[in-house]
Amino acid sequence: MNLTKSEIKKLDKEYIVGTYNRYDLAIDHGKGARCVSVDGREYIDFTSGIGVNCLGYCDEGWVGAVITQVMKLQHCSNLFYSEPQVKAASMLVEKTGMSKVFFGNSGAEANEAAIKTARKYGTQNKGDNCNKIITLVNSFHGRTIATITATGQDNYHKYFTPFLDGFLYCPANDIDTLKSLISDDVCAIMMEMVQGEGGVLNLDEEFVQAAASICADKDILFIADEVQTGIGRTGRLFAYEHFGIKPDIVSFAKGIGGGLPIGGALFGPKTCNVLQPGDHGTTYGGNPVATAGAAYILGKMDDEFLKEVEAKGEYIREALLKCPKVKSVSGMGLMLGVAIEGKTASEAVKTALEKGLMALTAKDKIRLLPPLTITKEEIDEGVAILIEAIEC
What we know:
By secondary structure, the chain is an alpha/beta fold. The chain has helices at 5-15, 48-51, 60-70, 83-96, 107-126, 145-150, 175-181, 205-218, 288-300, 303-321, 345-355, 376-391; strands at 27-31, 34-37, 42-45, 100-104, 132-136, 167-170, 186-191, 194-195, 201-202, 221-225, 249-252, 263-267, 326-332, 335-340, 357-358, 360-362, 365-368. The strands form four sheets. A seven-stranded mixed beta sheet has the order 4-12-11-10-7-5-6, sandwiched between helices. A four-stranded mixed beta sheet has the order 1-2-3-15. The chain is globular, with a radius of gyration of 21 Å.
């Protein structure tokens, strides 16, 4: 017999470490952009599990790919070869023009791989002191000690001291400050093309291109953190494609798993052979089941699919801007940040949930990350609920 919501909440409080303030919803099952709670209520999902369920709940093709693989081979470790891993890797390389892939399990691990690669590249090519990495104020790169230090938000830099040395912080879109931070000790510049946890803030194209130019001139690595923006989320396979640049390292996670834990880093020609046996590793990374699912998802990411994502994002943006209490809508594709007046984003999200819509917050904005496969009907229904929640 299934547990009731109150029973689930009681056991959660008793047995699970309280690192999350959960919303008052216990999900039982879902399909597409709709899910159903354990007490039978239906919701429109504008969260995708924080950008993970890129094809929505239980996409039939993805489920089939995963089930077929799990019945064949669930794990074999990276001491051996496996077909799903090389298929997913080849698809990523062919779609991006990068050179090689490292698979891990999460966005933080993906960024750890990028950081380690950058520091090894710097010390090998410029000496032992070339290990500093510039990140942006208001950025978010993960919760490990290294990636939380890379994160440019003061509220994350407490309790867990001592933090890792070697990170410098530049305000987003400030080219002059970026130039002033450059020295012979800098091995990399790392940034999100749209700052997700920082408030869904778009970077200026001029700033991104200036950073890429500095990197090329000074032999500094450009690292694009695409953990949230990647795998079609912004209407391109990766968000850096909007900016006309080619990074040396691209980290990814979330959407590529479709619900399974997988992340990784793409390496360009300068970085693809930096890591050698023994330099880095992971027990679960490149897991056959996760990469079988990833290969299915990558197979969906053609030009037509990505154009539809971009169009859906513009459709939501235009609909929301008709609401007088919506001040602005930031972001790209189906990664949107909604600034409102009259109430806080948290209040609006709570009200929306009560009315049947799941949404997120990011700083002082409502954050929307719907499934990339969401239908126009689901968009219309969800936007109507959100506007009602904002206006009431």
